[in-house]
Amino acid sequence: MPNEFVPSDAELQHHINQLEAKAAAHQAEANKYSEMAKGASDQERKALIEKAKQEYRDAQNCRSQANDLRKLLKQRQDQQRQKFSEATKEVMKAREEVNRQKNDGTKERLKSEKDHQVQSILKDKKEREEAARQKTLEEQRQKQMQEVARNAASLSQQPMTQLPSNQRTQG
Fold it and tell me: Where are stretches of biased composition, namely Polar residues (predicted)?
């Protein structure tokens, strides 16, 4: 088994693609023979139909082989994922064990961790509140700018009127 050739995933995928291309070619030939049989004499029709059937069987065989290779490829990928997952779990367990051995679990360490978590949560909360406040302020500024722009646009569209002389201010 160790000396047995095992193709890579890329080679398997390439072979699958080749088989699919062969299947498509056989299917095209089967369709061609089928079309030719429609306008042929009885004797020719039987021979063409037999050729079409053989091409169709060849296409099915290629597709079946491609599907088998797909199953193999998926199985190998699943095994690789499972091995990786198991290795990751082992590493995590080893880290946890090292941390347990390193930290003796005293009340001070636990309190320090809890304080750190609380401070981290408070800091995150303040940052989110500040971001929300900044967003609200920016939205208000944008609304004000839009309002000023609308007012300026409406003023520029209004005709200028001159007040009667008795309403003018004297300056």
Answer: 153-171
